[in-house]
Amino acid sequence: REQCRWFGGMVGNHVADIVERYGDSAPVPKALTDYIKDRQGYDYNEHGQAGNSHTTFVPDEIVDRFCIVGPVEEHVRRLNELREMGVDQFSVYLQHDAKDETLRAYGEKVIPVIAEQIVAKG
Q1: Which of 39, 46, 86, 103 has the fewest CB atoms within 10 Å, i.e. the most exposed one?
Q2: C-alpha span between 22 and 86 (Å, rounded)
């Protein structure tokens, strides 16, 4: 989870930009506007990097909301959950120590299971 915290920081940066431009009454979920209140600046030199110094404000709940971490079964479960909510695209970011293992797991296990479930439901 720690190596994925950068993504919550990056999302927080974009949420902060929206709030600054449109105010906190913009159609942004309260959970997102609440967590950026403790945000102190943003260093674009570390943008999108694991272990960057400006993501300490990102709580675990936000990491869990925007990232899928854990065993293959959790990835399959969350991707199915997201698909049922209408999500039809996702990105795999390999900005952590387990790059090869993650890519292999998606190629060999996650994508085949997801594809099989989509075909079975179609």
Answers
A1: 86
A2: 26
